[in-house]
Structure formats: C-alpha cells, structure tokens
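Changelog-adjacent note: as of this version, every example in the card shows the full chain rather than a window. The one below runs 339 residues end to end.
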Amino acid sequence: MGMGPASNESKNVVIAVMGVTGSGKSTFIQTASGQDVEVGHTLHACTQKLSVYEFEHEGYNVTLIDTPGFNDTFRTDADILKEIAQWLEFTYTKGFRLSGIIYLHRIADVRMEGSALRNLKMFRKLCGDEPLKNVLLATTFWEKVDSEIGSKRENELVSVPEFWGDMVEYGSQVVRFTGTARSALEIITQFFGRATVTLKIQEELVNEGKKLVDTAAGSSLNEELLALQKKHSDELKQVEKDMREAIADKDEQLKKILEKEQRRLDRQLQRFQDEQDQLRADRRNQMRALDQEWESRIRQMQEDAERQRILEKRVNEEQMALQRAEIEGLKQAQRRNRS
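Full-length structure tokens:
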C-alpha cells in the first residue's frame, strides 16, 4: 500500500504523534496499527530516527509518525527540534501534508512537570494558531488513576491557558486513549475527511526561508539557552572567585570541590553553545543528503516494482502455457477417442 502526496490521494491520512517521552506514543501507535515494527514506504526516506507506521482502516491509508519528546535523557532539545523540523520541512517540500497531530499526556501525572511544560511550549510554537484545529489532545494511562481524580486533572488541563486552555480556544479537541484498539482507532478516525494542515514551522522554513533559530520554536529555545548560559556563566564567575580565595587560604579540600564544579559548569556552557550552533547551522547540506536518499529509495522502489512486474508476467506466461498444454492435451485425447 504505497503512499503518495496528500494532494493526489484524499484517502491518505498522515498523523504526527507527539508528547513527552513516556507519554504512551509508541503504545498508542502499536495499539492502533497492530504493528511492532516499522512498515516501509516512501516517507521512510526522510524519517531518520522518527518511526513510521502505516496501515489501512475503513478504506483510509493511515500513516502515524512517532516523534521524539523534548525531554530525552540522552539528546538535547536542539537536536530533537532540528530532527523534527527537518522531517517537517522535507516532507512539505515533497508534497506530503499532515492531516493533524495527536498530542499525548499522562493523566496519571499529579502535576504538569517542567519537562512537560517545556515540551508543550515547543509544540505550541511548532504549530502556530491556525493548525490547532487539527490537533487532538489525548490523555493516556487512565488505568493508573481513579476516574474522578483523572477527570479533575483533565478539567485543569483544559481550564488553564498555559496548559491546554489556549489550544482548545483555537479549536483543539480533548480525547481519551483508554488503552484499547477501539479507543485508538476512534481517535484516528476523527481525522478522516479533514482538510490537511501546514504547521507554522513549515511555513517559516520553506515559504519564508528562515533559519531554524529564527523560527518561533527555534527562537523560543534559543532564548532559554541564552538564559541558562547567563545563569551558568554567573555561577562560573562565582566559582572562579571562590577558587582564588581557596588558593589564597591553601584550602586544598575546597579547591578540589570547586575544580569539580568548574568542570561541570564548563561542560554545561559548552553544551549550550553546541545547541545554539545547531539552531544556526546551514541546512542545505542536510537537505541535499535527504534529497539523495529520497531519490535512491524511490529508484529502489521502482526497481522492486519492475522486478515484481517481470516476475508476475513470467508467472502469468507460465500459467498460460500450462493452460494451453492442458487444452491441447484434451483436444488430442478427444481426437484419439473419436478415432
């Protein structure tokens, strides 16, 4: 079941699944698709670390994109934003359009944690205002919380503008994923028949030609990095001052503690600088590499299709030859019987 650009096939539904790490993205996708592994098609040419799942439901070709959250233990926010932005930019230039986004949140969480708020803020910047009407805000892990408590938390999410309230005002809808295939598919079918959407970051990167750092999402992240950079720089200055005093006082124990803290702050400052460099990096080489990979995969698919066509033709010819031989055999038998 191959998939082409949305402008050509209205029965194609492409949905990005977002949320913090551990919000249930993979579980939702696997429950909906019934798959444990990725299924190959042309969109794989530009997913890199994003996972793609494709299946059919009620006559629609459904593609679910599993995206990383902005709270990964081993990856920076800049790295994750760059990856998501690159995928959104590249697929947009190839004519693929999102039907919408499912944003997942653990209803079992007692409060909206800092990482979840940061992820939500970045998500909001990625989308812009108009696309929010194609966003479903889905709560997960209902089996881990009392239904009454869960309902109160859900109401809080909707009533607080900084949480989901603002997005609901722009047309986002709140749904519940209860862990069953039926629940997952009911959520997905809400995108059937909807017009596709262009996210703000796609407009900024492709139509306006902005650098990632100049987009709403990139600018927001860069401001956070600058604030953290200043905070750590101030802390480093204090550590250096304390170090001079420790050396003057010949306090070796304090000196070792301060040296360790100095190294930690130096590493953090370098990481912040690296993230800022990622946001400012020229994307042309990466886009060219994606283009080459895309073309290579398309050629491979075409070659596979041609091989399949030749194989089917050969099988058909062999079957026809067998049928002709059987018919000839019957005719010969009939002639012998008559004689």
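Structural remarks: The chain has ten helices and six strands.
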